[in-house]
Input
Amino acid sequence: MNEVSRIAAAEPTAGPARKSRAAFLWLILPMAALGLAIVWLVAVNPLSRFGNGAPPVETLTFERTILSDDGIRVLVRAGGSEPMTIAQVQVDDAYWQFAQDPPGPIGRGSTAWIHLPFPWVLGEAHAINIVTNTGATFEHEIAVAVPTTAHNATSLLSQGLLGVLVGLVPVAIGMMFYPALRGVGRDGMDFLLALTVGLLAFLLVDATAEAFELAGESAAIFQGQAMVWLAAAASFLLLMAVGRRQGAPSGLALATFIALGIGLHNLGEGLAIGAAFAAGAAGLGSFLVLGFMAHNITEGIGISAPLLKKRPALWIFAALALLAGGPAVVGLWIGSLAYAPQWSALALAVGAGAILQVMVEVAAYLMRSDGRGSTALLAPTTIAGLTTGVAFMYGTAMLVKI
Amino acid sequence: MTRWGPFEITRRGLLWGGVTAAGGSVICASGSSIAQSEHLADHMADHSAHTAASPLPGHGSAHGAMITVGEVDEARNGFETAKLLTEWDTGTVSRLPDGRVLRTFELEGIDKEIEIAPGIMFPAWTYNGRVPGPSLRATEGDRLRIVFRNLGSHPHSMHFHGIHAARMDGVPGAGLIDPGDEFVYEFDARPFGCHLYHCHALPLKRHIQKGMYGLFVIDPDPARHPELTDIARSRLLGTPENAEWQEFAMVMNGFDTNFDNENEVYAVNTVAHAYMKRPIRIVRDRPVRIYLANVVEFDPINSFHLHANFFNYFEQGTTLTPTLSTVDLITQIQAQRGILEFSFKDHEPGLYMFHPHQSEFTELGWSGMFDVVEAIA
Ligand SMILES: [Cu+2]
Output
């Protein structure tokens, strides 16, 4: 409104009412043009002259695989220009009886469950090949066949426990270094903060790569690559804006942001573990669990670093640990109940944006608390901290790679 | 087994790439697959019993539900797989001035989408709208005149396995016909045997794989084989001796539906599992003769295995005595063909399977059943 009245003042011939009518008109005109274009497109169908009798482009993505006593179930999502019809299904190069739910053609972007009463073999690989009515084929490999966890109170509880074990416990253990770290001087502080940036840098690369990989597996309709970029950028900008409302964050505020960024990352991690349960692609081994734990301990140290000059109440530590580690539990549940690659990609992308924000803020905090400004960023202790952080995360990440 | 929190760690599990089956409700590794198989067998038995479309609800379970789902619309296809077995095109017969038989066949090249397995459509190129094309049958010594009109979208031809002039070879430059054109192939029917014809336009693989092939059978003329007249007469269509036999035309083929140079569907006479779902009726005490040709592209070798029985085999069908005796499996390379003779007269009635002994082909649609029955009153 401010804008409008100022312009109105500069142009005395045009009254404000007339001006707003004109603005309204300029809003309506392009809309009307768009409407006309749509009507013309539907009525004339100019695309028909491009039709050359070729079959429609088809894509089919496999989102979930469930192996159970009565066979294999896969959730598929149709993409492509027209509804798709699944004609037959091969398992390991053999046509196999199947049931589709819901039956009939699958609309663009829609999903259907395919149930195959197939006697799969524990620990072996199987290949599913869906043949559509045009003869196009879409293959999905089950690398290691293991039964998918049935969902009941017990399984959710055990998954919750697993989430606590890989998410919450290590963060809490990391925070227990707090008293030991309190006595560190300026160099020690720089080292710890740089260590935090280093570990976050690793997580950023890791989460982004993972997000792109999952985006590649998801149906084309979700435009995975763009979704990852946009979600990461949006979460980064949003958190920067929120974080900077009262100036650059430090102390508890900064610790909270670190915990939030790590929490979002752990949500993605939890989704991945839950998805592994759901997909039956792999169970979780002791290596995996221990790896995640060692990996996440550093996160606890990172969260405590900005708090070393304060002396927060114990409950604050508990809350921060919950914020950073708790999402792993939630992620595990969501991942195992309703896994689809695009949702994991989205969670990881949001997490990546959040991590970038925290990196920026921790680096800024380091410069401020050191007093030397940007010189501190290149000081030997800082570089040592950065390197140690990345190296430690890299080393422990090796434990969790299958 | 170590119990560790909510996880069960098994040694076997650790071997799977260093990960173990975990989670409180994940079942223990050993034993579960057996239990599962038993469960599945029951499940499938139930399942197939409810599959109303299958006229033989029983055998789905016996073969682990390993079958295509649904039925092919034969009316839309314009040909019935059951009839492909016994339909012979003997052409139009007239006499030449010298008294010889002139046998005239008319074929058309037609682009046609056909259903090769329930729900799977294939943009085929056909002879007379069917795949395989008509099973042409003549008698040794006939003068043959084959009029071929190309109504399709690509140049096509008819290349006959037989003895003929270079001008009649059906290759580029000698009988290849452009769309809308017509060509008349003319030659004598020899040698007797089980032959085939196919399009020889380029690219060759594509034209054959698209469906342009068929059986070309030349029956022996008994007068020319005085020492084996009876056998020759039993082969000659139209004689009482021949009527005693139950003769079937079978062309082993395959279809690459996604252009990856591998076949998604294998069959005998085009439709996957057609004779599995509707077994071929055989009267027990009458002998059986199969004219079998292999036209599968991309896989060089195909085979035929008969369950619970043995047969005699006549390589290319050009002899009146078997070239292989008492075998239950023969292999045929691309374009190889022959005649199989066997009998179920000493067997109890029932379903007897036949299939290639390449398990992959069997599982992708090429398998069938003989339904051996007592003589019908
Ligand atoms: Cu051709």
Observations:
- The first helix of chain B runs from residue 11 to 15.
- Confidence is low (pLDDT under 50) at residues 1-64 of chain B.
- The first strand of chain B starts at residue 2 and ends at 4.
- DSSP finds ten helices and 22 strands in chain B.
